[in-house]
Design a protein that fits this description.
By secondary structure, the chain is α/β, with parallel strands linked by helices. 35% of the residues lie in helices and 19% in strands. Helix 2 (18-31) crosses helix 3 (49-62).
Length: 232
């Protein structure tokens, strides 16, 4: 089993926003004790969904919950730059394609209570892999092993993968960058996630202009005010 170290620069940045991700975690817990498998997506790349996924997973882990972070963005993994492995490893794509056992792709991290399934190599057929029985079986298995499972999914504005993944989750969350995505695209993304049949918890507004928001002292992660509010 590989050991994954949280990159120091990332850890320092995350520490600055710890209070706000703890608040989001609390909101999720208040939404229902049965909501334990959470799929996070965005409209486009670069909006902060992977950073949010990591921060939420760390928040749950720091609160004493056994937490699993799954990097399901196999086309364009950002988490590979957040955690540094101490040895070669296999990832989600190897398990889904039948080339590795589940126990082979779950790695320990330097964060107590947090484990990770990295994305692994880029597969030729990411969407098909997510639709096979192995993905569903994996989620059912890890449900019995962890208190919370956080899944970082590909942007819903580019591919349908996030909706497929959400169908196997208990709830979904959309992360969007303030002022970067037109409202109609955000609304379409919300509709796509709701159509997955899984409870949609709300939108996390990310990268808010710190000269305009009262939480500006905390940098790019200052506002989570739209969490839990559906667009109208």
């Amino acid at each position: 089993m590989s050991q994954f170290e949280l990159v120091r620069a990332k850890a320092q940045t995350m520490h600055q926003a710890e209070e706000y991700y703890n608040s989001i975690r609390t909101n999720i817990q208040f939404s229902g004790r049965e909501l334990r498998v959470l799929a996070l997506t965005s409209v486009q790349p670069g909006e902060g969904k992977s950073t949010t996924s990591v921060n939420l997973a760390i928040s749950f882990a720091n609160a004493g919950f056994r937490t699993l972070l799954i990097d399901a963005d196999t086309r364009n993994s950002v988490l590979s730059g957040t955690f540094k492995a101490d040895s070669s490893y296999q990832g989600l794509s190897s398990y889904l394609s039948g080339n590795a056992e589940l126990s082979d792709v779950i790695g320990d991290t330097s964060v107590p209570n947090l484990m990770i399934i990295p994305a692994g190599q880029v597969p030729p057929n990411p969407t098909s892999l997510l639709q096979n029985d192995n993905f569903h079986q994996m989620i059912e298995t890890v449900r019995s092993l962890y208190d919370y499972i956080i899944i970082d999914t590909p942007p819903i504005g580019l591919v349908i993968d996030a909706a497929i993944i959400a169908n196997n989750a208990d709830a979904s969350i959309l992360v969007t960058e303030a002022g970067a995505i037109k409202r109609r695209f955000v609304q379409k993304a919300v509709e796509q996630m709701e159509q997955s049949g899984t409870q949609f918890l709300g939108i996390i507004l990310n990268k808010v202009n710190n000269t305009l928001e009262r939480y500006g002292a905390y940098g790019s992660y200052g506002d989570y005010g739209n969490y839990g509010k559906k667009s109208k």
